[in-house]
Amino acid sequence: MSSDGLNEKERAMLEPENPGRRKFMMVTGATCAAAFVAGSFFLPGKLEAMPDCKGFLVVDLNKCQGCGSCMMACSLGHHGATSQSLSRIQIQQDSFADYPGDVFMAPCHQCEDAPCVQACPVAANRPALEMGNVRMIDQKRCIGCEQCIDACQFTPSRVQWDPKQHKAQKCDLCTDAPYLGEKGGIGGTQACVKVCPVKAISFTNKMPDQSREESYQVNLRGKGWFARGFSKED
Amino acid sequence: MKNDGWAGHILLLDLTRLKAKAISTEKYKRWGGGHGLGTALFWDYCEDKTLTDGRDPRNVCVLSASPFCGTLVPSGGGRTEVTGIGTGQWPLSWYTRSNFGGRFSSMMKYAGWDAIVIIGKAEHPVWVDIRNGDVAFMDARTLWGKDTEETQQQVWAKIGMRRGTKSDWKLLRSTIDAGRTTQKPSLLSIGPIGENSVHGALIHDAGNGAGQGGFGSVWGSKNLKAVSILGTGAVHVADPAGLIQARFNTQEKYVDDPDKPDLTSWGGLLGMGAITVAFETPPTHKRRPQACQSCIGGCRTRYENGKHNEQSCQETAWYGAFARRFYKDPTDIGNANLDAARAAGLYGINTYGLNSALPWLEYLYHEDILGPKGKIKSELPWDQLGRPEFAEAFLDCIAKRTDIGADLADGYMHALHRWGREEDLESGMADFPYWGMANHGYDPRSELEWGYGTIMSDRDFNSHDINLHLFWLPFLAAVKAKPMRIEAERAVEFVAERLGPYAKGRTECLDYRDSNMYSEPIAQLVRWMLHYGRFWKNSCGLCDFKWANFFNTNTKDNWGATGSEDAGEQVWWRVVTGEDMSFEDGIERGRQIYNLDNAIWVLQGRQRDLCKFAPYIYKKDVKGFNLGMFPFFFWPTPDENGKWEYREIGSRHLDEAKVEEWKNTFYGLEGWDAKTGWPTRSTLETMDMAFVADELAAAGKLGEES
Amino acid sequence: MRRRGLLLLFVLLAVFGAAIGVGYYAAQLRPTGRGVGEAPYLFFDHLSWMPFVAAFVGIILSSMTRRVACYIDREGERVLRMDFAGRLGHWLLALPCIVVMFSGLALGVFFIPRLTPDGQATAFLFNIHFVAVVFMLVGFFYLLGNWALSPRRLSAFIPFVGGKANPIYEGLIFYLHRAGLTKRTVHPEKFEGSEQLAFLMAMGCLFPLVISGFFKVAARFYEFPAVLSHFMNLTHDFFTLLMVFYLIMHVPLVLMPWMFPCFKAMVGMGKGGGGYVPLDFAKRENPDWIKHLETEGKVK
Lengths: 234, 706, 300
Fold this sequence. Notes:
The complex is a heterotrimer of chains A (234), B (706) and C (300). Chain A has 234 residues and is an alpha+beta fold. Chain A folds into two domains: 8-42; 56-227, Alpha-Beta Plaits (2-Layer Sandwich). Chain A has seven helices and nine strands, in the order ααβαβββαββαββαβα. In chain A, strand 7 and strand 8 form a beta hairpin. The longest helix of chain A has 21 residues, at 19-39. The mean pLDDT of chain A is 91. In chain B, helix 8 crosses helix 9 (330-347). Chain B starts with 8 loop residues before the first strand and ends in an 8-residue tail after the last helix. Chain B is globular, with a radius of gyration of 24 Å. Chain B is of the alpha+beta class and 706 residues long. With 300 residues, chain C is mainly α. Chain C contains twelve helices and five strands. In chain C, the strands form two sheets. A three-stranded antiparallel sheet of chain C has the order 3-4-5. Chain C has a two-stranded antiparallel sheet with strand order 1-2. In chain C, helix 4 packs antiparallel against helix 5 (119-149) and helix 5 (119-149) packs across helix 6 (151-157). The chains are: A alpha+beta (234), B alpha+beta (706), C mainly alpha (300).
């Protein structure tokens, strides 16, 4: 047995070939591999800073009447059907709990450094640069790996799962709400804001303090609200 | 019809065999959901329609949603209709109805069900766990005897939902595609009173209740403690953008700005938005409004003291007058009243009955007929009537059948007859004017459509359509010394314009003067209200508080939403189901449903002679005081020159013979045999209900053709 | 020879295992250092150049090995069926391919939901997928390189052209004959029909998978039109399922008792050395192939 591992008979049976071709492949392969390795230093990284969203939803936990109209309007505007599980804003209630702990409102925060965007392995979830940088999930790119759902640091997760499409979805401030019947997105209508019978959800261009979840909870009650018999203090 | 608005399936729960089965909704769609759907299902699944006590295991109880449930239809997305043979009425319990709000019907739709049909009786107490298409019958022996709050919370725990809010998504089963939700299960349960008496209510969450009809007792007799639903699906609608836009428009045009309320508006409760309806002033501002799903302005409230959550309206009506005797400070009165309301919810009692029962029992106590030394023995602390402790003790004795509860538990009229107190029905001290049911509060001798509507159906009429507009608004304005925002004549014109197809534009239908009490226009009004209620309200699930909306001072021309082109009932039907039905088509559908109801009553043994008021309603000498809650009763009436004003029409009686004549008119208009009150074949066949005529004929109960 | 083969196998497995270990560690959540949240380290995000480099490594590797023609070793009473380069290419493609497929299925495809319970497990699976993809691409492009160097071998694999018999028909008749259901037999060259079918299925699935896979990796740093991304995702999903179907057929068939000497040859345990099948076995199973080798003088 020789150093190339072939016995005599096998060496005698080596197939003829073009030595030039072999050399060509070796050199070309090595050059291209080196080029890719070098080029990798110039590829745009995935974790470059993402531009800030230009719109946010803020909520008044003390004002919400728990009617779920926002959830219905959201799912209806996006899907043409009402569904709590497909709503991109979630309202949770415990009808036996003391006010104001009986209601929690969970809108998407359009985070400055959104973990759900960072987690997406296929860049389906990313700021839509032409739409005010709203963090939205391109349904054509999404592969349904659910990384974004797990990545959201808030409870409940602000990313939902569509079991029929096998894709994730999230609040896009009604940028892509084909059944809304009017223009949505930043500069347009948000279904949940407009439908709320007590105006417990508001839209703002000013980014809330990203270090505190409570900065998204505001007081939207005034004298008129008090005149109805409800508290306007927190 | 497509499945727009419909879930497409009905869940049949057989408690005898502990089996569940899905049936298609398709053939039932003509009845329109809610009451119509429930009655059609009862017609098919009740093997013996002659039953007159809802506690018979052959009774069929149906919980129905409608195409509107779970959608954005304003104040139409959250009500659940309950139908079946009731309990506790007199002289027999009719096939009857109730409904409740909250988030049960929407959850039912999201789970994929248009209705739940409950048949049979379980061998031991069970509760039913429904998660989308999965149904399981669970042992409820450890829940039996528990109050409605503890029952619901324990079932939540069994399903794995923790108390409080701010919890993460939960998988319904083991995979994400089987559905996930952040919501708690929607539960409907009974309390101890449903387990042991005829007065049981069905309670959902803290304060939604189906009281009338005693369906809590029907469930108790079936050994059914609770039904829990979790749904993660969707309700498709025919015109999603149309629904959203119509909803936006309705809020903007017909409803008060939540932050700039017009507290003297005459927009009806639809127009007023979120306003707490309670019969005693809520004891604190530290609260929020609370609403059923899709409601355009919640009428309930949740408090800093969570024990009082969602107690409003009727639950706060039955004890307040007594609480005011003990407490002077409005906060204390409010708290005591809410404590009593909460107790009623925990025990699960139909509080309507207490409206008349407690004053009557108190009268007996003060006459020394009832009490420790009375002929009717009672050791209850009657001198403490007004304190929450008394309320709890009273409810407890009914639940446990102790003290006078042993007699009351079988029905107030049953107790009255057992005690030999028939004279109280002659004098009116037992204010149970119709079917052994308590006076709702609106004197049937004054508010004619209420009284007539009740005896021409199965139960306390409880349809506030014209009551809210023509009684409450002027009443409140008078009490608060505010101007009448809409003149009487204009008010009745608004209402009359919607009374098609029978009486469109006929203002005489709203004329409640003595001279018009037994007239054909009044009969037309009652027909219209029964038919409107049967379809648009009870079958579509539109809330009685918000609908109808005849006039509304929030709009420029003061026209209300009812029948309007942009927000009328038919608009919602069209955008949800895709069916282009007119408002009056809906009235006709209601007539069919009402006729199906009547057919069941006829099979149960209904004769026109049974359709009457309690004796005191006809007594001249009883008119010395007003019945019900109100010291005076305004209603728009014309004078002899035809000038309409809001006038006092209380303090009168009904002439029995003239009421009987009025019934002839009513039966004639309905196409029924005036001798019996039974429908005729020709009437039924014009409504494509020959199958009903066949069954009535087989029972020998078809009305004679005139 | 066997020792070298075993050593090579050991080294490859060790490298593979180590890479998986690194992948596990990388999948643990750690602060991103950018404000909020924690995130795992995904190889696909940070080493997206590596699959492309792997392709060229495969080509370089193919230029370092020589092909040995099949021949009869009379003295050893054996026949060389698959040379070292062929065996290396096959296993360097096949073993990582199995890991790629199962990790891909577990990540969710079409109607099959994600099987991992949480984000961290998903990240680990993505990293496993990445490591296996890199190895698989080395093997795939090694095979392509081999065919570039020996086009004659490639032409033997390609079905239907060059006057070859229909491999589907041949495969069907072969197995029906074995089952005693037909008297008809086939006369393949080294039963090339089955190899042509396998080639068709494997390359027919692998080419779209590799192309769509490269595309999906490139999408991490280049903005392709969404419709194209969607099409590539669907392609990747569809051919994954087709590949599963192929494996379900291929693996049991090669483990059948009458194929066992071939399997032993493929794993380097053949008679007297890797790649050899016993001569009497070959005469029994493929007499025409033996006749063909003798005719061509490939006898030592």
